[in-house]
Amino acid sequence: MDPLHIQLVIRDIIRETTDTFTYRFSTINKQPLIYQAGQFLTFLVNLHGTEYRRSYSFSSSPGIDPLPAVTIRRKENGEISRHILRNWQVGDEVTVLQPSGRFTLDKPATQPRDIFLLGAGSGITPLFSLLKYILHNEPTAHIQLVYSTPSYDRTIFYQQLQQLAQQYAEQLHIMYLFSSEPLDDKTLLRRLSNTMLEPLVNEKLRYQRSDAQFFVCGPPEYMRMALLTLKFMGFEQEQLHKENFVVNTAPQLARIGHPADTSMKQVELHINGDIYHLSIPGNKNILGEALAQGIALPYSCKGGVCGSCTARCTKGKVWMALNEVLTDKEIEQGLVLTCTGYAASETVIIEL
Q1: What fold does the segment set 253-351 form as a domain?
Q2: What's the whole-model pTM score?
Q3: Fewer CB atoms near the end CB (10 Å): N or C, the chain?
Q4: Could you give the residue range(s) of every CATH 2.40.30.10 domain in the chain?
Q5: Sheet harboring 5-17: ordered strands across?
Q6: What are the tens digits of pLDDT across the range 315-337?
Q7: Exposure pattern of 89-101 as b/e (b: 16+ CB <10 Å)?
Q8: Residues 136-193: pLDDT tens digits?
């Protein structure tokens, strides 16, 4: 088997809503799956003779939930999610890549701080993973969860969230925003907006403004509004974290184009102790050329969004056509995305 691949067995399937299910796994070799709260698994799904890669966030939290789990909502036009929900059964084996993703806490804070979790729809999934981790590891953190969902019936993890809200009443506060069907006669139909978010954040902040952390996951327009509002309020990029579920950067990549330089660059890949030497034209992305030459690199979206292909450039320069996941600080530390990365110097060394 490819060393990048992991075999899992489905141990349990839980129906969360009519179109959303949680799948719990164990590894074939009985070794624990090492992951961080907020990360995701990329599944290799074979359908009609073609291999597809789909990434789904952990809803479980390491050290808290006994088994790793992902939660999957059926997409209206999502052939793969429909296939999974129809066909996966307890006992089935599935193939995944190593856990990945940068939608994570750096480390538990030693000082009290505010953490805001802003989610819409299935965007609650990685936030639920983070929420449990924070409650378990940061007893002094003040957490505000704002959860936008169409209706009570489509609210994923509602009962679990209510239990946590009662158990951690002094630490956790949850606001549900129902957009199409209210919970009861006293519930207003509302959508999160900049005019709602700004006063909400100012009202809920307890501790140092510079220590606050924000995690945002939902549809693109939802995240754009939230992040622009928070930036306008003066919060720094390092305080803002986003997770993209919708990956459609092809039009943007087409507009950006690729470098005009066609000269050959010498790229050295260091992967799990092995070293590969490649000659890559300056106008070809590193991931695509490595795969074409039979070198297995991790990837999922191929669009500069998910971060599965993140590597570190230790020598030379890499130009990224699109980057929706790495911060400026991470780029300064040498992190690059191989899927949208092009060798921009004569010699480049990349470590995975």
Answers
A1: Ubiquitin-like (UB roll) (3.10.20)
A2: 0.90
A3: N
A4: 5-97
A5: 50-57, 40-47, 93-97, 5-17, 20-27, 69-73
A6: 999 999 999 889 888 999 999 99
A7: eeeeebbbbbbbb
A8: 999 999 999 999 999 889 999 999 999 999 999 999 999 999 987 766 655 556 889 9
